[in-house]
Amino acid sequence: MQEGRPEDETWEGERGVDRIFELVPIVALLVAGVGGGIAAAIRKSPAASASTTGAPTAAPTKTGLVAETVALTILGGLFARILIGVLLDAAGDAKGARLAIGWAFFLVPGIVDAIASIFSDSRPLTDGSVLLWFATVVGAFTGLMAGLHRIYDWSRLGAPQFLGDTTWGLGGSTTAALVAFLNIFIGTCSSDERKGAHRYDKGFRLKEDFAFTQGNVMSSLTDDETQPLYKHERLHVFQNRAFGPGFILSYLGWMALWIIPSLATSLARRDPRFIEGWCYRSNPWEVWAYFIQRRAAEQAEGRDFRSGGEWGPFVLREASAVIYAVPFFLLFVLLFLVAGVTLW
Ligand SMILES: [Zn+2]
Questions:
Q1: Ligand 1 centroid from CA 289, angstroms
Q2: How far is the CA of 190 from the centre of ligand 1 (A)?
Q3: Rounded to 5 degrees, what are φ and ψ at 212?
Q4: What does each C-alpha distance from 258 to 55, 218, 272, 313 come to in angstroms?
Q5: Rounded CA gap, 134 and 101, in Å?
Q6: How far is the CA of 247 from the centre of ligand 1 (A)?
Q7: pTM higher than 0.85, yes or no?
Q8: Hey, is 218 helix, strand or coil?
Q9: Residues of the chain below pLDDT 70
């Protein structure tokens, strides 16, 4: 929409949709695809390492693995470019919309430029072409890893999962890419295949004994899909795909909202557990995940874990968390609507 578009000196006068298929990034994507194919060709067959549970998936033919990796690398980058290009074009490359895209789909450029704009007028990372490069790199890397580790089950929900990871869920895929990259050096990949997520037995984590899930990457998770903790982490993968920016931004928003009250309470009551309890464990997205985990544990052990164990006094009860969540999410939806209407 051209009418009413705010004047902006960085507007290049070039339609966003044309930029999607610019020569240099498209060539870069093809090169990345070839690189992915080579990586797939020299990769040790995952079927060689024994699966711990379940029926082993059919060993991939080398050609199949190479073809899948090449295709997902190129398509991943392309899907992400199309989404971001269309969004940029629809907003006429307006400054506010670019910042919103930076937050909603890649997080890092949003945070960096929000801080940068306090000190100066420049927003280096939420420039239109920079955002399109973010899309190219994150989309292609997400596709590359998914192809190499054959995470999608194409006979089931593989296609929408892949589309979600490379478009709507790009925010989680960005941080997932950072975790997966780090795990190349410090992680051990599981032999899971076709489960819709990428699991590392060993890998990056924030706390000992904790798994860490970003996008479709579940790090530091030794449990297989029959275990309660796996179900918890796997739900976060779904949350990112299904709710996209709504998930990642409201997750962080909840933490931001509770950090001061929980810090004050922790100091007053001389117990640091209120911070983790309110910011993290009472976060509605975590309440949902812990609910799934608790139910699975109860079914497995035939015990009632509703008391919340040692964390009981430091978390909102499930029922009150739901009550808190309603106005919180209504506010978030309102915020999204206002941003959408004013920026686009
Ligand atoms: Zn969790």
A1: 6
A2: 20
A3: -140, 115
A4: 44, 26, 14, 16
A5: 11
A6: 12
A7: yes
A8: strand
A9: 1-16, 45-59
